[in-house]
Write a structure and sequence with these properties.
- The chain is of the alpha/beta class.
- The protein has a single domain (about 10-175), classed as Rossmann fold.
- The protein is built from 7 helices and 5 strands, in the order H-H-E-H-E-H-H-E-H-E-E-H.
- Helix 3 links the parallel strand 1 and strand 2 (about 75).
């Protein structure tokens, strides 16, 4: 930079340092536990249903494809616009995931539910429905340590950050 300090380098150094810290906030044992839940269900012929909102929806879709293509597991992401708008119109946005779970999920399947804040009504209600149906549940959340989603799974992966892109990037790396 001509005639001044470089403002970009310190920003990226701080940003990548923070991401490195966040990646290490769960242990390999936590990630192995999540993988074992999916592997156990898959070995029994069950599927994995992955759901999130916004950026987390993109992560969910990508993870479902990776599970199918790279890992040979049955998986689906609930992100078809017709599916979402049909269930949201008929049952309300806060209930669409729960109602879709009731239609698509079978006991023994796995639900992977992603919410950066852990407070999204549709994801929290989806976790409740998954439990009632008999699904194994993996949750990914961030923000408040006491967010409701964080306590709703067999495996709960939590990011100690209140910055959306940091939480979402960490979830993507973990998955």
């Amino acid at each position: 930079m001509i005639g001044g300090a470089d403002p970009v380098t310190p920003y990226f150094e701080k940003y990548f340092s923070e991401l490195t810290r966040l990646f290490d906030t769960v242990t390999p044992d936590d990630l192995i536990a999540a993988a074992e839940v999916i592997d156990t269900a898959s070995s029994a012929g069950r599927k994995t249903i992955v759901v999130g909102n916004g950026g987390s929806a993109g992560i969910a879709s990508h993870v479902a494809v990776d599970l199918v293509k790279a890992a040979g597991r049955r998986a689906v992401a609930f992100h078809d616009p017709a599916l979402i708008t049909c269930y949201a119109n008929d049952y309300g946005y806060g209930n669409w995931v729960a109602e879709a779970m009731n239609s698509y999920a079978d006991p023994g399947d796995v639900a992977v539910l992603i919410s950066s804040s852990g407070h999204s009504d549709n994801i929290v209600n989806g976790a409740k429905a998954a439990s009632e149906i008999g699904l194994s549940t993996i949750t990914l959340s961030g923000f408040e340590e006491t967010n409701p989603l964080r306590s709703m799974g067999e495996v709960n992966l939590w990011v100690d950050s209140c910055v959306y892109n940091e939480v979402e990037i960490t979830h993507q790396v973990w998955l």
